[in-house]
Every structure is written in structure tokens, then in C-alpha cells.
Amino acid sequence: MNAPAEKDAAKPSNFLRQIIERDLEQGTYAQRHWAGHPADASDHLKGQADPAKIRTRFPPEPNGYLHVGHAKSICLNFGLARDYNGVCHMRFDDTNPEKEEQEYVDGILDAVKWLGFSWDANGTSHYYHASDYFDFMYRAAEYLIEAGHAYVDEQTPEQMRANRGDFSRPGTDSPYRSRSIEENLSRFREMRDGKLADGAAVLRAKIDMASPNINLRDPALYRIKRAEHHNTGDKWCIYPMYTYAHPIEDALENITHSICTLEFEDQRPFYDWLLDRLAEGGLINQPHPRQYEFARLNLTYVLTSKRKLKQLVDEKHVSGWDDPRMPTIVGLRRRGYTPEALQLFAERIGVSKADSWIDYSVLEQALRDDLDPKAARAMAVLDPVKLVITNWDEIMGAGFLDACSAPVHPHAPERGRREFMCGKELWIERSDYEETPPKGFFRLFPGNKVRLKYGHVIECIGATKDANGNVTEVQAKLVPDTKSGTPGADAVKVKGNISWVGVADGVKAEVRLYDRLFSAAQPGAGDKDFLEEINPDSLKVVTAYVEPSLKSAKGDEKFQFERHGYFVADRKDHGEGKTVFNRVAGMKDSWGK
Ligand code: ATP
Ligand code: MG
């Protein structure tokens, strides 16, 4: 495995880790063999002892881009495999004969790799497609018929629904349930050979129409659907149902721990029923995989449904799958999130068996904790107004530029210093000046002294306003002999200091200030239309000035803009003469507000 992080023995335990540790201790899967590729029981048996201690899998449907919920599942499945000397398989669940879009396949593979994981292990690429198992699935279906465990039902869909019963009523046996094995087999082959119309019949498991678990009331295994499949073309006009296909995929791949979200809990008895039957028949390796369910990720202010995210893209509510406001992995990446931050997030939220909502601030805090020790610092003015130092020419000399510097990172002196020039004219934040200061305001107001960060102390004189009363320029006087880092600089005490960028060497930048995409904490909850809960102010674009060290910023490079938070050079639009930054997150949590 390509391990993204050191194995950490101190990782907090959870119910999945306990199950795996118990299985390892008891040697539950120690006797398994592995054919070197997915295979049935007899082929696996010919292979060597399975070199993987456990096998997990990540099985997306290639019908969209992955989102932060998938990131949780990826970190979980690949992370467990890494931590327990196992392997995690990358498997596309493509049993639905729908058009597989190469764009989605590529996007999913990129996302997993970017998160820091790999499906290569022991010299093998564990990259699989569920549709490669269609032949085996068919063979397994014939076996079930021959063993008396499946039948072809030709009731109409309405009859089938009516006869299924409900929570308070047991189901009623189909009149086709008692067909002979021979008749079932020939009818199933007719289904396969295209002799029956779409929807005219289904193959069903013969379990128990009175089971309190409705999923065990003879669930459908195969349906007739004339459709081209991207992998198998028109070879098949019958396709396996997901609930039938998934356990078989796991079994052929020697998966040990099949981890899925809670909504599949009621399917587990069928998962076991099916694999028990196939194991009895000697078709699949034993002991067979086990399914374990965990709570899906729900994140406040965020949608985690591919279908709804696709709607946002298709209806152009966002600029694309990688819009920095999207909770897709490509969106989070462009927003400035790092693989390490997402891994840290996944670790912190852990896994549980109860559904809950995670506060968005947990995701942001993981990002801050990852970036704080890494990101270079820089000064930036996001809402600029000009400050003129009226006595500059007299004290420093006309046209003189005073070289100032600051550490690239305050806790890593070895990373060197950034340099920038102070001059007569500077850009400062509009909010740093108040004509009449509110209580506790220590920045610029007439008569008050503040320090220009890394520079001199100045004393505010006043400001010029336009006809509407908007400040167009602030004026101040420089206090001599107070430059930061020089002897006696602290002789003049000030309560505030302000960030600034020189008019002479500042770099004009487009800065995109992102906010939550939805104004509701649980978008679309309670029958609300999620589209009506879109936050109209989720993007504000400003023209800012940033210090000259950022001229060499590369796309995707992250910074901490002092006072403002974390920013990233936009991976698409930054560069070639354009300076574009995205705000990833503020310095402090603003989500609780
Ligand atoms: P969506 O409803 O967004 O399409 P899905 O579950 O249908 O999601 P799949 O492509 O089938 O998407 O998912 C692949 C894997 O990711 C599954 O194992 C699924 O359990 C997991 N997964 C999907 N959404 C979440 C989530 N919100 N939290 C945790 N795991 C998730
Ligand atoms: Mg799905």
C-alpha cells in the first residue's frame, strides 16, 4: 500500500477496528487462498495463501463526482486496509447498464489518488469492475435454481407489489413459486436468450414470504432489461439486481470486511443468506465476507447526494463540479482543502452506528490544523483604502522606500523572510479606520497611534471623504525611530497594529470570498426545496492588494493571509499575469454564528 500516513498505533479505536482485531486474533480469514485475481472457490483454492490480512473495498457507481461523504468512506476503507496489512480494492459498481461516463470514472480515480491512497498492493493492481463478474453471477443464479433456492416469477409488477405484504401483513406466495426446477431453469434461460419481454419476468430468491424482514420476502435477483452495457455490450438482456450482485462481487474478490452505510442494514440477512447458499454449493471461497454498517456522513450546510449535486451543476447554480463551493472532492481541492485535512477530518469524526450531523466547523478546523504549520504567511488588504503618510517626504525622504521584512513562517525561521516596501502611500483595510471609534477600537481614528505591522508607528490625523460620506483616503504621520525590530522601537506604546500593503510594490489580486452554499443547516430537510435554500451571497469577488512575495505564488499554493485566514491560489484561474486567490477558511470559526 502507498501509505499516506504512518501507521499510528494510538489511533482511536472504533467498532470496526475492534471487529477486525478480533478477526485477526481468531484467524477468521487466515486459511483463505487467493488466485491472484477475483475468482470462484476452486480457482482461489489453487492460489497461494492470501497475502492480504484483510480486504476491504471502495465501490462507487460511476454516475457523478465523489463528495466529502465518499471521502469518509475512502479514508475508512483504505485506511483500515493500510493499518492492518490489508488491501483495499477499487471497484466500479457498474452492474446497471447505464452509460458509464469516462469523465466520472477518471474523476473518481483521481479523487482517490489525490486523497493519498492506492489500490496497488503485492504487485497487483486491485482495480475491478463489477460487470466483469456477470458470467459468474449467471452461473450462481442457475445454481440457486438447481438447488431449489430461486424461481422465475411472472406475476405483473403490481401483483408482486400487492403480494409482498407490508410491515403488519405477511406476503402471499406467488402462484409461480412452486414451479419445478426444470421449468425454472428453462424459463430463466429463455429470459437470458431474449425470449421474454422487458419486465415480463424476474428471477426471485425462494426464502420466506412471511419473513418480518421484507427484504427476505423472495427478493428479485435478475430482471430483463434490453440495454447496452459499456463493458459487455449487448451480450446480456438480463441484469443482476444490486442486492444480488454486491455480495457476489465481495465474495469473488475475497473481501473480508464489506463496509457500507446504515441504510443497508436490513439487507444484511439477505447478504448472508445468499453467500451461505453459494458457499454450500462450493461456488465461493469460505469463510465468506461479512457486511458491517456505519453512519453516513451528514455535514451541516452541505448536500451529500450525487443526484442533487448534479442538479446544481446541470442547472448552473454553481460553475461546475469543481466550483470551490461544492462539497465534491474536486471542489474542496480547488477551494484549498488538502488531502491531509480531509484525512484528519475523517479520523476526527470517526465511525459510529448512529446517524448524526457533523458541524461544518469540524471540517474547517481540520484544515486550519493542517495548514497552520505549513502555510507561508502574507499580508493582504481585501477592502483597500489608501493611507497617506503626510510627513514621509520630510522624515524618510521624497520617493524613499523603506525595506521591511517578516518571517515566511513565525515558527520556522529556517524558511527565511519575505520582503516588502513601506512608502508614503499604503493600502490598508477600510475597516481599520473609524472617524468616531466605538468602545474597544484600537486602530486608526484621529489622534490615535498604531503600528504598521513590521514597520513604524503612525499617528492618525483624519480622512478625506467623498460627497456620499465614504472615506477615500486616510492620513497619518509617521512617528520617527519606531521601526519594528530597531532599538527603542517600543518606546512608543500602541494598543493596535494594522496590516498593510505598499502602493509601490503591492500586487493587485482578484480574491474570491466564499461562504456557505446553503443558508439552511440541513438543506432540503423537512420537504423543503433545497434550491430555495441556496445562499445568494455565497460568493463575493473583491479586488485586493497582496504583498509582492505572492507574485511567485503557484496555482494550488496555500497561504495564511495575516488576520484574514487561509487562501489558495486558484488552480484554474491563477497564473499567466492573473493573480487569483480563493478564501479557504477564516482564521476562526464563523459557522456557529
Ligand atoms: P449518492 O447517494 O451521493 O450517489 P451513493 O451511496 O449512491 O451516494 P456510491 O457511488 O454508491 O454513492 O458510493 C460509494 C461508497 O461511498 C459506498 O460504499 C457508500 O456507502 C459510500 N458513501 C456514499 N455517501 C456517503 C456518505 N455521505 N458518508 C459515508 N459514506 C458514503
Ligand atoms: Mg449508490
TrEMBL record:
Enzyme Commission (EC) number: 6.1.1.18
Molecular functions per Gene Ontology: ATP binding; glutamine-tRNA ligase activity
InterPro entries per record: aa-tRNA-synth_I_CS (IPR001412), Gln-tRNA-synth (IPR004514), Gln/Glu-tRNA_Ligase (IPR050132), Gln_tRNA_ligase_bac (IPR022861), Glu/Gln-tRNA-synth (IPR000924), Glu/Gln-tRNA-synth_Ib_cat-dom (IPR020058), Glu/Gln-tRNA-synth_Ib_codon-bd (IPR020059), Rbsml_bL25/Gln-tRNA_synth_N (IPR020056)
Gene Ontology cellular component list: cytosol
Keyword terms: Aminoacyl-tRNA synthetase, ATP-binding, Cytoplasm, Ligase, Nucleotide-binding, Protein biosynthesis
Location relative to the cell: Cytoplasm
Listed GO biological process terms: glutaminyl-tRNA aminoacylation; glutamyl-tRNA aminoacylation
Reactions catalysed, as given in the entry: tRNA(Gln) + L-glutamine + ATP = L-glutaminyl-tRNA(Gln) + AMP + diphosphate
Binding site for L-glutamine: D93, Y242
Pfam families given in the database record: tRNA-synt_1c, tRNA-synt_1c_C, tRNA-synt_1c_C2
First-listed, main subcellular location of the protein, grouped into a coarse class: cytoplasm
Domain Glutamyl/glutaminyl-tRNA synthetase class Ib anti-codon binding: 375-478
Residues that coordinate or bind ATP: E61, P62, N63, T261, R296, L297
Boundaries of every Glutamyl/glutaminyl-tRNA synthetase class Ib catalytic domain copy: 53-366
Family statement drawn from the similarity comment of this UniProt entry: Belongs to the class-I aminoacyl-tRNA synthetase family.
Quaternary structure (record): Monomer.
The protein's name in its UniProt record: Glutamine--tRNA ligase
Species this chain originates from: Ramlibacter tataouinensis
